[in-house]
Design brief:
96% helix; mainly alpha; rod-shaped
């Protein structure tokens, strides 16, 4: 009887240990599952944010490209005006001074527009690099 009582105590101790091990394993599983869900939610939120950022960058880039094209068209128009004014100055020497002054103003406008266009082009290049960086980030996040 004494041996049976000892075996019973041993079995109860093993049962308690098994229950404790099961509880610990269950908690570890729940913790792992919860952190996986949190990481998935964060990743989805990051993807949504980056997708929106990507769209905003594309819209901004498209807007800058349109503005840049308009500036180039305006530059071309102004350059044509300069050419026409130069021809008129050669034909009419008495109006040469007035045409030269107008040409100087137009040239200054062209330089100003070229500088604007150059800055816009630099900004466009930066938005392209930013977009590529965001795409790389999204791809990096998707691989995790």
């Amino acid at each position: 009887v004494h041996d049976m009582e000892g075996e019973l105590k041993d079995m109860e101790a093993r049962e308690d240990k098994c229950e404790a091990d099961f509880a610990e394993a269950s908690k570890m599983f729940q913790d792992t599952h919860a952190s996986k869900d949190a990481a998935t939610q964060q990743l989805n939120a990051d993807i949504e944010r980056l997708t929106l950022d990507n769209k905003n960058v594309k819209d901004k880039r498209d807007s800058l490209e349109k503005d840049l094209n308009e500036k180039f068209a305006e530059i071309k128009t102004l350059e044509e005006t300069v050419k026409q004014n130069q021809a008129a100055a050669e034909e009419a020497k008495n109006e040469k001074a007035a045409c030269a002054a107008e040409n100087n103003m137009i040239s200054a406008s062209i330089d100003h527009l070229k500088n604007d266009a150059k800055r816009m082009e630099q900004t466009l290049n930066m938005t392209r690099e930013s977009k590529l960086a965001m795409v790389d980030e999204v791809m990096r996040l998707n691989t995790k």
